[in-house]
Each structure stands twice: as structure tokens, then as C-alpha cells.
Amino acid sequence: MGDVLLSAPVLTAIKKSFPQCRTAMLVAAYTHELMSGHPDADDLLIDDFKGQHKGIVGLLKLTGDLKRLRFDAALVLHPSFRLALVCWLAGIPVRAGTAFRLYSFLFNRKVKQRRKFGDRHELDYNMEIAAAIGVQADKVEFKFHIPQEAKDRINRLLQENDIRGKYIVLHPGSGGSGQNWPVENFGKLAAELAKDPGLPICITGSKTEAPLADTIEKYTPVTRFDGQLSIKELAALLKNSALVIANSTGPLHLAVTVGAEVIGLYSMRVACGPDRWGPYNRQNSVLTPPPGTDYSRKDSNPMELLNINSVTQLAREKLAK
């Protein structure tokens, strides 16, 4: 989810630079809903890499599909030999991607960047590749389509749970995309924030993350939406919240995309750190363990060192605004 959301602003930048062009985005099936209705995506193409596009035969089928659409340019934002090969085999004239990889010879617009160092934000890396084909953007714009039926269902669910105004959303999972703040800390945080009158606390997550919500519920009464919402419904819930607090995960980027106030809880490990994966241009919305934390140990979670009081304090500061 995060990769796709941090790629979508490239579509808007392309449209601003080349207003008459037609754009398409190639996505996995499970992220199709995320991009449906995006105003700057003229077409959404499915890369069914677990089904019809699996293996050599599937790769050739995907190649044929792209070749028939006669694209003038391809931006390979997600570094992948498979996608670079498909664009080359499809005969797309302009192919932009990152340099310094064994398959970079498949690109004819190479951008010198080493994402593994995490010295820039993922979205900035993506915009840099777009610049290689002449895309110019003086600012990054997030757009997201929320259909009326998703808004209506969220309104109904909130009313059924007697939530009439603003609320706080806690998203305690991450789907394995980063190191998690201990769920017990989320529970204690919920109990602290529940002391402030007038702001109910909602829990979001997938069906498999229900045990996390179970744990938080032991600390204080909450309204649970785990396993109940589509992506568009989740976006509607996040958009109307007073504050979203989450680990490094796709729903945090979704909250930023729809304009919600957020706090992101991050490890400082390079692979999942806030410099590359934090909420975009929200440096004052990131909390990490204290300087000097040892991230090399495999037998401990350094996120345990992120103090509950610091999260509670920042949350109250943001809510006061």
C-alpha cells in the first residue's frame, strides 16, 4: 500500500507537465482498489504475478499486453528486474529507472540513486525518476478518490457506535513492513488519551491483526473497525479523524494522502527509517527511540524504548491545535 501511495503523485506531476498525455499505472491486484478513481490515472493495469502473469509464459503475456498499448515511456518506480525486462521486451522507446543495478542496462534513462541508503524519501526517489523523462513538479500533490458509498458506510458505522464528532484512530499493526511499537504500549496510550473527554478511540487493522485490538481493548473501551473496512472505507475513516497514530505502515501513508493529522512511530533502521518511509513532509509527526539505541540486536525490539509519555505528549499537542 505504501509503495503505491508514494508513487501516485508522479501521475499528477506527469499530467501537469504533459496535459494531453494518457497515463496508466501497473499495479498488483490487491492494490487496484487503492488507485481506482484516481483523477490522473487514465488506465489501471493489473500485474497478476501470482496468476496469469506468473512464470515465463505469464511474463510474455504481460509483455504482449503492454506492447499492444504502444506506450511512449515507462517509469519503473519499483526497482525490479522483472518489470524492467517486460518494458524492454515490450519495445517501449523511453524506459526510466534506477542505475547501479545489474539490470540497469535495460533502461535508457538511468537515474543515479541508491535507495538502500535511505538518504531521501521514497516519494522523492520516485519524482527523481519521473524527472528523467522531463516531468517537472514544483510541489508534490496527493490525490485520492473516496466514493460516496464508502463515506456513507463510515458515517453509518460511526453513528451506530454513537460517535458524533471527531475521534482518534490507533493502527497498532504494520503487516511486517516495519518494527512495531509494542501493542501493550498502544493499550496504555489509549487509556491515557481516553482520559481526555469527547474523543472516542477507534482501532483499525486487518482481520489477522484482531489479537492486537483484543490487547488494546483490555486497557480501555475502544471502537473496533479491524477486519471490517475496505481500503476506501478506511480512507474515509482516517480523513475525518482528529489524529491517526500508527507504526510505519501503508495506512499511515493513506492518512497523509487524505490530509489527516498523524503521528508515525518509527525505528531508525535504515531499511524502514523515517528519512525514507516517514509521513511525507511531516517531520514534526515522527517519533523514534532515543539516540544511541542499539538496532543490531536480534533478540530485542528497540521500539520498546520509545517512551509512552513522549507519544502521549505529542498527541495532546496536536489535538490541542
Quote the CATH topology of the largest domain: Rossmann fold
| Poorly predicted spans | none
Oligomer, anyone?
single chain
Helix percent reads 25-40%
Task: Tell me the count of domains.
Answer: 2
CATH architecture of the largest domain: 3-Layer(aba) Sandwich
Supply the helix-strand structural class: alpha/beta
Main CATH class of the largest domain: Alpha Beta
Average pLDDT number: 93
Adjacency order of strands in the biggest sheet: 8-7-6-9-10-11
List the helices and strands and how they pair.
Layout: H1 2-5, H2 8-17, E1 24-27, H3 32-35, E2 43-46, H4 55-68, E3 73-75, H5 81-89, E4 94-98, E5 109-111, H6 122-131, H7 148-160, E6 168-171, H8 183-193, E7 201-203, H9 210-217, E8 223-224, H10 231-239, E9 243-247, H11 250-257, E10 262-265, H12 274-277, E11 286-287, H13 308-320
Helix pairs in contact: 2-6, 4-5, 7-10, 8-9, 8-13
